[in-house]
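Order emerges. As here.
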Amino acid sequence: MRPILICLLFLFHLVSIHAQRSPNEKEAVVDSLLKQAHSAYNDIDLLSSMESALEANSISEDINYSEGIARSNFYIAQVLSSVSDYDQSLEYLSLS
């Protein structure tokens, strides 16, 4: 009985370590997407910039990554203002 208990505790410990690493990996993905969005915006590739920012926003909301949410909303607003959709741009700016 004791070896089974030790094995279960070890497995729970491994699962908790893996669970703690996941948000950091996802934050790195969000940061990478935000860099892509910024780079695409600088290259005047608005569609690619919007796609990257929207994906980063979605992942950031899933993992509750506040910096990612703020930056992705800013990039979305930036693209929207570039295509003269100022009302939507202001909404996203207020979210950031």
User: Anything to note?
Assistant: The mean pLDDT is 86. The first helix runs from residue 2 to 42. The CA atoms of residues 74 and 93 lie 6 Å apart.
